[in-house]
Amino acid sequence: MSETPANTDTPDMYDRLQLLKQYRHIAIVGLSADPYRPSHFVAIYLQAEGYDIIPINPRYAGKTILGKRVYASLAEAQAAGEQIEIVDIFRKAEDTPQFVEEAVKIGAKVLWLQLGVRNEETGKQAREAGLVFVQDRCVKMEHARFFGGLHTIGLNTGVILSRKL
């Protein structure tokens, strides 16, 4: 039986926990102004948990969402003085490779594809460029699972682990 090399997979839960503890500035690519869209809900949750969100969406560039200025691109946000550590992408899988190079240029540490979004080519490019790559995971759900927030601003799915981390 051959093992999959560790660097070609999403970081394990302990590594994801460390990412969410270490990095507090999250660019949300594809953030919607529609409060019923998942990206908006995630942004509300992250703000409530003390994270600095940086909205990225060319459709709303120059406007504000959740009290934060919206930027057309990661580069524009960085040029405006925003610090970005995690790039959380709410886009179709085929649209994700374009963000690898930009994430590296702005000094991001993590490229994170939301729940249901998988792109192995994006992952390969991201890891080769030195980024931590997470795919098919929701930042909000991961945070809630690790820090006990599944009962607030979200679902109550019951016990996830038998003990708190």
Description:
The protein is α/β, with parallel strands linked by helices and 165 residues long. It has one domain: Rossmann fold (3-Layer(aba) Sandwich). It is 32% helix and 15% strand. It has 6 helices and 7 strands. It has helices at 13-22, 38-48, 74-79, 98-105, 120-128, 139-147, and strands at 25-29, 52-56, 64-65, 68-69, 86-89, 110-113, 132-134. The strands form 2 sheets. A 5-stranded parallel β-sheet has the order 2-1-5-6-7, with helices on both faces. A two-stranded antiparallel ribbon has the order 3-4. The termini are far apart. InterPro entries: CoA-bd, NAD(P)-bd_dom_sf. This is CoA-binding protein. It comes from Dictyobacter alpinus.
Which key terms come to mind for this protein?
Rossmann fold; two-stranded antiparallel ribbon; alpha/beta; CoA-bd; disordered N terminus; 5-stranded parallel sheet; CoA-binding protein; 165 residues; NAD(P)-bd_dom_sf; single chain
What's the Cα radius of gyration? 15 Å
- DSSP summary: helix tally: 6
CA(first)-CA(last) distance = 32 Å
Class per helix and strand makeup: alpha/beta
The CATH architecture would be 3-Layer(aba) Sandwich
**What would the principal axes of the Cα set say about the shape?**
globular
Please give the domain count.
Answer: 1
> How many β-strand runs?
7
The average pLDDT is: 88
**Percentage beta strand:** 15-25%
At the third CATH level, what is the topology name?
Answer: Rossmann fold
Low-confidence stretches: 1-7, 156-160
CATH level 1 name? Alpha Beta
Instruction: Please outline the major beta sheet.
Output: 5 strands, parallel
Portion of residues within helices: 25-40%
